[in-house]
Amino acid sequence: MKLKNNGQMFFITAILILYIITRLFKISIMGEYFDYDEGTYLMIAHLINNGYLPYRDIFAVHPPLYYYLLALWLRILGDTYIIGRLFSVFLGLISILVAYFTGREIRDWKLGALFASLLVCDPLMIYMNSRVLHETIVELFTLFALYFFIKYVKTKNLRYAYFSLFLAGLGSTAKFTIIPFLVALYLTIILSLDEKSWQYFEGMVDSIFNSKQILIVLLTYLIATLAVISIVIAYPKHIIRLLVIVPGIHPVDLVGHKYTSALFLLLWIVLTIYILDLSYVRKLIETLKILLRNWKLEIKLGLVILVAKAIVEVPFGIFISGNYIAQTYISQGGRYLPFLGFFSLMNKIFKNLSNGSPEFMVYLSPLLLLFTWVVLTLSKGYKLRGEKHLSGLLLLNIFMFLFLIPIPPSERFIYPMFLVAYLTALYSLLSIELPRKKIIVGGIISLLVFSAIDYGLLVNYPAGRLKLAWGEHTDDMRHDLQIYLENSSKPRLCMSINPMNAYYLHLTIDPHLLDTFGLAYLKRENPEFILERMKNENITCTILSTWMYAIMQKDKTLKATYSSIQNYSLMHGILRFSESYSTGEVLEFFTLSKTTKNLSISTHYGKLYFWVNGIEIGKLYFEHGNTSFNARTLLELKKANFMYIMRSWSRNGRKIEGHIETRKKIVEIEIPKNSTAVLEFSGVTIKKNGEPLKAGETVSIVYLYTHDMRLLISSGNISRDKEKLLITGHEIVLKYGDDQ
Q1: What is the distance between the alpha carbons of residues 317 and 279, in angstroms, rounded to a whole number?
Q2: Distance (Å, rounded) from C-alpha 165 to C-alpha 179?
Q3: Considering 157, 200, 229, 607, which has the largest number of Cβ atoms within 10 A of its Cβ?
Q4: Do residues 604 and 619 lie in contact, with contact meaning Cβ atoms separated by under 8 Å?
């Protein structure tokens, strides 16, 4: 791999400078909604450097290569999350160089420069290359495999085929999401071993990547729509309405939808064969015969993959723990269902456009732009000439990623397919002899599109201006908790639901409880197992935060697990620190004890929340004049007698401060001078004489009945306004129990 002249060197240097600028821009910022995985991998690498081993001491769900490379990087350069992110920046920098040489190898330096430039501007990799995530190393191994695959195609030297498969196999020891690419690469190579089998395969590729496919897909959807209408009209049962859908237009989120999707795919294949008048039976039989004749060479090629995997996974996985296969291969195998990927991706596009949320498609933008240029050139009568081997590899990647292998169709998981698609599309577009003026116009339009998208991703996204969840106050909350812990006693053994909090705060954790998501969602451990482990290992504190509360709303299994941990923390823990914003961001720190506490407090959504026996019963904030102090609330335990300082901020930055004292069944809240406490609740309020508290009435004592519980509330003046109590005076006393 060498640069041939000074012009090429200047261009690739400019690309690399742009890469470094975009990847290092705000590399230090954190976002609670998305750094769970970062924290997991950083903590695993940290534990490896302290003598713990994945799969034996640490529950880990990915293969070992990335963990150990990251651990080595941190050991040499320093154990911080910034250093960890620089590992991805470094790997991504190599990827850009490999992308350039891959494009140049298959065509010329122009294709290499375009391919590398596209990856530099790709919004997905702008994010991934500056985070401690597997996707950058998967990108690198995919590009290396593509480079040697192109060398094999040009020279027909099997040595390069072996190199290509070995590198892709090595990539699969970092993360399984490269496996569909690996399978597609292997099949493409073995089909190319014989001229006749490759000729048959080329014919199939030409049939699929045919301009008539637009009409065939449209016809498939029309027939499917008519079938759905007919079936539902004839059998209008609830189960029929759930299962009989048009995949892609309807969400595909039930197990039964894989059968509907398979039928849709079968209809599309039948229509393709019929409309294009294809003959396939004889060709298919002959291809199978050819493959059987070449079985020795095919086994050798397959063994190269196994050798690559064995080099890493045997010493660092299988020999470490007998649970390695179960923790990685088996647990990951149940994350998704076959035949649903393509239709889920299509439905995502339709749903986000109809909901007015185009931000959620940002990572598809390079693919959409390339597809737009391809369709536009075809519509103008230009004939695209693709590279046959690349086109074949792309077809098999689409089939593996989106139909056959159960990979969740998240852009980061199917990125190897995107890389093949980018290179294939760019090669085809460069095959057209266009006037210089049109090329300049197309380049300017593409540059404007990427400039707008990348600017938004780098500037608007971290600032919380997009609908994409970020957590713009993550840095501030973690810094506040860090200062609090520095000025108080450090806990012995902690469990942080988001591992990034524990890593950032340098807390000691139980390695087996590092990845609670993996335990609950992939291994399907029940909540009782996690709670029992916490007790047996004498966990002394828990950290609950934004990520946990957000993910609880998306999955029933995770909600059951994390609700149990939250309730345990509320009832058996002493809240020492809690900070929350009205946006939903929250960070809570509990010290666990063996005693049970009935009445608990914390902060959520910028308000003070109350729980009785783990059940939410109300939330409180202060008003002063026309100003509401519920944009942000910070609660810190200052004394051993459970005295808290509560600080609350309004949206315009004003602050009020008060004190809260808690006992087992009593909470006393100081009301700031000239302020009104607003208590939001759901339930029934009863006066001392047993009559309901009506709007406009003022009392000093009221009983709140909610969730089969009774809470006494007393203060100077209490009045009701719909589902709110307006309270004034010096303090509020909330008391739970029968001794009222």
Answers
A1: 47
A2: 11
A3: 607
A4: yes
Angle of the 179-191 helix axis to the 158-171 helix axis, nearest 10: 160
- Which among 494, 469, 481, 699 has a CA at the least distance from the CA of 578? 481
Alpha-carbon 601 to chain mean position? 31
| C-alpha atoms less than 13 angstroms from C-alpha of 721 in its C-beta half-sphere | 8
> Which tens digit of pLDDT belongs to each residue from 222-274?
999 999 999 999 999 999 999 999 999 999 888 889 899 999 999 999 999 99
- Provide the 3-class DSSP secondary structure of residue 579: strand
Residues 6+ apart with CB under 8 A from 691: none
Taking the alpha carbons of 336, 342, 347, 352 in that order, is the dihedral positive or negative?
A: positive
Claim: this prediction has a pTM higher than 0.90: yes
The Cα–Cα gap between 390 and 82 comes to 37
Domain boundaries of the chain, sorted by first residue = 6-30+61-193+294-460, 214-275, 474-665
Quick one: angle between helices 179-191 and 135-155, nearest 10?
A: 10
Residue showing tokens 């719909």: 722
**Nearest to 416, CA basis, from 428, 402, 431, 426:** 402
Handedness of CA 207, 211, 213, 215 (dihedral sign): negative
H or E stretch at 321: none
pLDDT at residue 324 tops 60: yes
For 117-128, the DSSP string reads: HHHHH-HHHHHH
Question: What is the C-alpha to C-alpha distance for residues 469 and 363, in angstroms, rounded to an integer?
Answer: 15
> SS3 breakdown of the chain: % helix, strand, coil, rounded to 5?
55, 15, 30
Give the integer Cα–Cα distance in Å for 684 and 686: 6
Above 90 in pLDDT, residue 640? no
**Cα(740)–Cα(713) distance, integer angstroms:** 10
Q: Positive or negative, the Cα torsion across 311, 317, 322, 326? A: negative
The Cα 530–Cα 402 span in angstroms is: 35
pLDDT of the residue at 696: 83
What's the sign of the alpha-carbon dihedral 267, 268, 274, 277?
negative
* Closest alpha carbon to 59 in 346, 280, 328: 328
